[in-house]
Amino acid sequence: MKVIIDTNGFMIPVQFKVDIFGELERLGYDDFVAPQAVINELKALVKKYRGENRTAAKVGLSLSDRCTLVERAGIADDIILQLALDTDAAVLTNDVGLVKRLNDANVTVVRLRQKNRLDIM
């Protein structure tokens, strides 16, 4: 099954010490997708932040190498929603606004649960 990973999803490994790929595989996902807009956000966060958030963004960038990169123009959240609808993919995110939009569109959402594992919502 396919899952699109949002910017904050890539930052989970450093922020919460969770192996996102191991957890996604445990949930049945084996096809990982990263929109170019998410990669661009991670690059911007590396420049903007210091400390743990910068480290999380750097690790997220390196983890994105394990994903299929999708080039689409626009705002990351809009791209993620449309890509999920177009490809019948789930989305890994903790962004409350994006989660609401995904739920309204009946897209499967994978979220951090109890700060130590991922779960399908």
TrEMBL record:
Residues of the signal peptide: none
SUPFAM superfamilies on file: PIN domain-like
Domain VapC9 PIN-like: 3-115
Pfam families: PIN_9 (PF18477)
InterPro entries: PIN-like_dom_sf, PIN_9
Cross-referenced CDD domains: PIN_VapC_AF0591-like
Name recorded for this polypeptide: rRNA-processing protein FCF1
